[in-house]
Design goal:
Chain lengths: ~110, ~110
């Protein structure tokens, strides 16, 4: 089976740090993606992890532990524009486009 | 460089009708996939195409079909529409068919079935 879990909604304050967790159980693993989606817009790529560890990209970082089936997205110095849904997705098989998505975490950043 | 273009952006249909959605990938991208997004289910994979061949298909009924043309443009069709088909249909393209190439999504076609 394929299952990806992430919290439905989170709230945080401008300037703070927030961590969005994602756990997965999939029939295979060939990479984990994080996408950001603002309401009414296309999902946009944030990060990709295929090996264990932390990938840092500006204010955003993503961590992966394959043995635990766990990832998190860390957002630092939150800005109002970071209010969006954050989608965790796993690619079960190499060479294919199929991604298995979680239902997304809606992040609300308040002043 | 133009992004992934989907048309139409919004459409309203009634039960029993059929609909065709179009997707133009980023220039040079040969791989196209389609996803259905609903509030309760999130994004669910429909199918993917590479060089006009369907390489993978999700768990959707046969009413959902697609194709890809020689210029990499893709269409998906849903026949005998049901209320539950109301969703945002997203198309994504990728340059190759292997590796860590990232999917780039279009803004989607929002289908409402009445």
């Amino acid at each position: 089976g394929q299952n990806i879990d992430q919290p439905t909604e989170m709230t945080a304050t401008e300037g703070a740090i927030v961590q969005i967790n994602c756990t997965y159980q999939t029939s295979g693993f060939n990479g984990l993606f994080w996408y950001q989606q603002h309401a009414g817009e296309a999902p946009t790529f944030l990060s990709y992890n295929v090996l264990d560890g932390l990938e840092e990209k500006g204010r955003f970082s993503s961590f992966l532990s394959r043995s635990k089936g766990y990832s998190y997205l860390l957002l630092k110095e939150l800005q109002m524009k970071d209010s969006a849904s954050y989608l965790c997705a796993v690619r079960p098989r190499a060479g294919f486009q199929k991604l298995v998505f979680g239902t997304g975490t809606r992040l609300l950043v308040s002043p | 460089k133009a992004g992934v273009t989907q048309t139409p952006r919004y459409l309203i249909k009634t039960r029993g009708q059929q609909v065709t959605l179009s997707c133009s990938p980023i220039s040079g991208h040969r791989s196209v996939s389609w996803y259905q997004q609903t509030p309760g289910q999130g994004l669910q994979f429909l199918f993917e195409y590479f060089s006009e061949t369907q390489r993978n298909k999700g768990n959707f009924p046969g009413r959902f079909s697609g194709r890809q043309f020689s210029n990499s443009r893709s269409e998906m069709n849903v026949s005998t529409l049901e209320l539950g088909d109301s969703a945002l249909y997203l198309c994504a393209s990728r340059q190759g068919n292997s590796g860590a190439n990232v999917l780039t999504f279009g803004a989607g076609s929002r289908l409402t079935v009445l």
